[in-house]
Design goal:
The complex is a heterodimer.
Chain A: H1 5-20, H2 22-61, E1 63-67, H3 70-76, E2 96-97, H4 98-105, E3 110-122, E4 145-150, H5 157-161, E5 164-169, E6 180-184, H6 185-190, E7 198-203, E8 217-228, E9 246-249, H7 251-257, E10 273-274, E11 276-281, H8 287-297, E12 306-308, H9 310-352, H10 354-362, H11 367-417, H12 450-475, H13 480-485
Parallel strand pairs in A: 4-9, 6-8
Antiparallel strand pairs in A: 1-11, 1-12, 2-10, 3-4, 3-7, 3-11, 5-8, 6-9, 7-8
Helix pairs in contact in A: 1-11, 2-9, 2-11, 2-12, 4-8, 9-11, 9-12, 11-12
Chain B: E1 10-21, E2 24-36, E3 41-45, H1 52-59, E4 67-72, E5 75-76, H2 77-80, H3 82-88, E6 90-93, H4 105-115, H5 123-133, H6 138-141, H7 150-163, E7 168-172, H8 180-195, E8 200-204, H9 208-213, E9 216-221, E10 224-228
Parallel strand pairs in B: 3-8, 3-9, 6-7, 7-8
Antiparallel strand pairs in B: 1-2, 1-4, 4-5, 9-10
The chains are: A alpha+beta, B alpha/beta.
Chain lengths: 488, 229
């Protein structure tokens, strides 16, 4: 079907007008080009930042930590006052039980989970500390083993980093029994231990003043021996900090050494306690679902909050988000200001063209077609400008984005340097969290895709439509005679 | 028996036009009635400010009356639609040179033909013939109208009006910018258009020659139709 002659005429007129007033046409294209390029740059910087933020979330934001928030426990009044922190011991409500964590681990959103129980153990007559250099003076018996309950020995930082490695036997896994233990090679030699031997250890808790120490001894079977690469220094080192005195057990076994065995159902620490549990989510967006599942499992999330590794994420994406925010605001301001400028320009051009509109109306041209002609003219200019912006926008946004981001990264680093580490909420002594340092994202990967062109195209054409239709509809309310006679 | 047995092509009844300027109300045309027939040439004369151009604007559908009616072939203009009336039935040659300056002479004419729905693939040839008839040489047809002389522009405007193949041709001082010879030629074109082609031609003029060539002359004074000769 052939297009309507009147409609074709509209396009012809638009073309004649654009080529007949080439200077004005180029000016309009130039203005549109500036607007579209700035808007496109804003979009590109924003989408590059969003991509970087998503990547960062995948990297650090997916690990959720669950641990005691001491302040929340005290605020809740659930700590037992008679044996509260002042007395040096917290009540049962401060215990995060392994069985609860195991149940949360079964949540469909959890890809992997781990937990640890930090404990200590006093030596016994049959199991001595490794102390190559004896302590100065007479202060025997104050040193103790460090006994960490782990769910998976391979997930322990020392082992992951290669500083420690199993040399014989097997490690601790989720299936290990609560009386299994892995010891360091030097300690094994000191005590003539081999895989399959049994060791006796005493509860490693220093009692509150006035109370007798817990002298209970527990027996563990050596299932593995590992080697730590840190050599002896030849000087006295407190036994607790010597790597050879680091024992690895199951969380249930470590709980026994925390003195929690007596309270357990089986008296053998069958449902031990954990200090910290970490859940690796399949999708960072599933945090709310994990919270729901944890609550359903019976966790009190006020006292044991689930927190994403937020600090690292904030450090990573803080500057890039600031840059994206600035770019977004700029894009909006340019779009609004551009619409206003173009509307004024078109309104002024329409005033100049009143006579032309009057002539066409006197010939019986329909008002929508007159507006259509203007729209075609502005759209043609905007399409050329959008094409040019598509070619120049990525270069500009890369340059501007990098410069803005460099400034933001520099400010963020200065700010971070002035801030200390965050407090560990589970530490009654107010210790600081140990966290891996991360550097903020300092580069933008600007990519121009069809969606970006689509967005800037829609914005450009929207601006063109608004800038034409608003002033145009006002002018066209006049009748042809007014258009032909007024404003001459 | 009626004074005008044939149905008029255009009928003005009690036509009034007032303008409001603040609290002041100015009556420009008052109670004008007349019937215009096909095949005749009319001249509307009168002193400046007598309402001639206003009458032409109302009759050609460029403006709406504040009182009275304009009927085309018995149909009220309000019902017919002024836009449609201008598009299909009436064409106007203005006093000032109302051409689209970004187009050539030929484009002005063909574009108007397309807008008014003149059918046929030979629009371009017809436009060239009309421009030729009005003395626009071939070399000037493809020049932007801004580069043509005042007289040439007026003739292009007339060619554009003629090209629209309408029933009524309105012209506001069409010979004002033309020399005597060209003016005489234009008057002849108008007469032929009325008498040979059966169109109704209504010309607002101060020119005695145009008035003399017309079949009927309407005299306006202070917005009123005072006589018909």
């Amino acid at each position: 079907m052939l297009p309507n002659v009147g409609v074709m005429n509209l396009f012809k007129r638009a073309w004649w007008r654009l080529t007949g007033h080439l200077g004005k046409t180029l000016m309009l294209i130039g203005l549109f080009f500036v607007i579209c390029t700035l808007v496109l740059s804003g979009f590109l910087i924003r989408s590059a930042a969003a991509r970087a933020a998503d990547d960062a979330k995948q990297r650090v934001g997916a690990v959720v930590t669950m641990q005691l928030d001491l302040n929340a426990l005290i605020s809740s009044g659930k700590e037992e006052a008679s044996s509260g922190p002042v007395a040096g011991r917290l009540g049962e409500n401060a215990d995060l039980h392994r069985s609860l964590v195991d149940e949360i681990c079964t949540s469909s959103v959890v890809a992997q989970c781990n937990y640890t129980t930090d404990s200590g153990a006093f030596p016994t007559r049959s199991t001595r500390l490794y102390q190559p250099v004896p302590p100065p003076g007479d202060a025997p018996g104050a040193d103790l083993f460090s006994a960490d309950g782990v769910r998976d020995l391979n997930a322990v930082g020392e082992f992951k980093a290669g500083d420690s490695a199993l040399i014989t036997g097997r490690g601790i896994t989720a299936d290990s029994a609560s009386d299994e233990i892995v010891v360091e090679e030097r300690l094994a030699k000191e005590n003539k231990l081999e895989v399959g031997d049994r060791v006796e250890l005493k509860v490693g808790q220093i009692p509150p003043p006035g109370e007798k120490p817990d002298e209970t001894e527990y027996t563990f079977e050596v299932v593995g021996i590992y080697r730590n690469n840190t050599a002896d220094t030849g000087t006295y080192v407190p036994a607790l900090t010597h790597p050879a005195n680091q024992l690895y057990l199951t969380p249930d076994g470590a709980s026994l050494l925390l003195g929690k065995g007596k309270g357990s159902k089986d008296g053998k620490g069958g449902d031990g306690v954990v200090n910290q549990a970490t859940f690796t989510l399949k999708d960072p967006a599933d945090l709310e679902r994990l919270r729901k599942d944890a609550t359903e499992a019976g966790a009190d999330l006020e006292i044991f909050p689930l927190s994403v590794n937020d600090k690292q994420y904030r450090t990573l994406v803080g500057p890039i988000n600031e840059t994206a925010g600035f770019a977004t605001v700029t894009a909006w301001l340019v779009a609004v200001a551009g619409t206003a400028i173009l509307a004024l320009l078109v309104a002024s051009s329409l005033r100049e063209r009143r006579k032309e509109l009057g002539i066409l109306l006197s010939l019986g041209e329909k008002k929508p077609r007159l507006l259509g002609q203007h729209l075609v003219e502005i759209t043609a200019c905007s399409v050329v400008a959008i094409g040019l912006a598509g070619a120049c926008g990525p270069l500009l946004s890369q340059a501007v984005g990098d410069r803005l981001l460099a400034g933001e990264v520099s400010s963020a680093q200065e700010e971070a340097a002035g801030r200390g580490p965050e407090r560990d909420p589970s530490d009654p002594l107010g210790g600081m969290k140990e966290e891996e340092d991360v550097d903020p994202i300092d580069s933008l990967a600007i990519r121009l895709g069809p969606a970006d062109i689509g967005k800037v195209g829609a914005t450009g054409l929207g601006i063109a439509a608004l800038a034409t239709l608003v002033p145009g509809s006002r002018i066209l309310r006049l009748n042809p005679r007014d258009l032909l006679t007024k404003g001459d | 028996m009626s004074e005008h047995p044939a149905e008029p092509l255009l009928e003005l009844s009690g036509l009034t036009r007032t303008y409001q300027s603040g609290s002041r109300r100015r009556v420009v045309l008052k109670d004008v009635s007349h019937r215009f027939e096909a095949g005749r040439m009319y001249a509307v004369v009168g002193p400046s400010g007598s309402g001639k151009t206003t009458l032409l604007s109302l009759a050609s559908g460029l403006d709406a009356p504040t009182g009275g009616t304009v009927r085309f072939r018995g149909r009220d203009m309000a019902e017919l639609g002024r836009g449609r009336y201008r598009n299909r039935h009436a064409a106007t040659v203005f006093q000032s040179l109302n051409l689209l300056t970004y187009m050539t002479a030929l484009q002005n004419v063909t574009s108007a033909m397309e807008i008014t729905g003149v059918k046929g693939p030979r629009r371009r040839r017809r436009a060239a013939e009309l421009l030729d008839l009005l003395g626009i040489e071939a070399a000037d047809r493809n020049r932007r109208t801004l580069r043509l002389s005042g007289g040439q522009q007026q003739r292009v405007a007339i060619a554009r009006a003629l090209a629209c193949e309408v029933d009524i041709l309105f012209a506001d001082e069409p010979t004002g910018a033309l020399d005597q010879v060209t003016a005489a030629g234009i008057i002849e074109v108008f007469r032929k258009l009325a008498h040979d082609d059966g169109k109704c031609v209504i010309v607002v003029t101060h020119s005695k020659e145009v008035a003399d060539a017309s079949d009927e002359v309407l005299h306006l004074r202070r917005g009123r139709l005072v006589s018909r000769t």
